[in-house]
TrEMBL record:
Residues 186-197 have a biased composition (Polar residues). The chain crosses the membrane at residues 44-69. Residues 183-211 are annotated as: Disordered. This is YdbS-like PH domain-containing protein. The keyword Iron does not apply. It comes from the Archaea. InterPro entries: YdbS-like_PH.
Amino acid sequence: MSDTALQDISGDGSTDSSDLDLDWLTLEDGESIQWSSTPHKYSVLPAFIIGIPLSLVLIGIPIVAASYLQYTNTNYVVTNRGLYSKRGVLSRDVQQIGFDKVQNISYSQSALGSYFGYGSVDVSTAGGSGIELQFRSIPAPAAVQELIAREIDSRQQTESDSTKEDVLDSILAELRVIRQAVADDQSGSQADSTAPSTDEAIHTDTSNTDE
């Protein structure tokens, strides 16, 4: 990943993974977190702008509270194997997509998001209909998209190298079998050429008898 992209992800509005409660996340052996965050802190501004004036008549309080709870209870994670999303206050809605299923990645930003540096990353899968997973209102969406693309490319390259090695091993194994078969055939031919034929054996035996 480029230094610029890393700097963008580490900018204002992102949340350090050490500050996140990721007890809901179960990683497989060899799987590691590459990036994690909540939505951008400024993504709650519209709710506050609308909710605070309305709180005078108690209508705005639920709006502000719901927006804040959604912000604090939403996590997005990118590992070296896939993408994770967790939402929910009273219950948890966890989604996971492996990189082997990702077909397309795109990001979008509203005018407010462009100004404050947040946006959404949309992920669609092969065989799926539309967007299967969305990282909403995250910091530096372009940098996160680049990170995901690089992780996918890295995985595909690793799988390609592994496939090539498997094919090469298979070819070498077949060549060893063929070589052994040829060697066995040559050994059999040499044995046949050195052994006396039946007629020669009879002639030799007759000569010995006459003597």
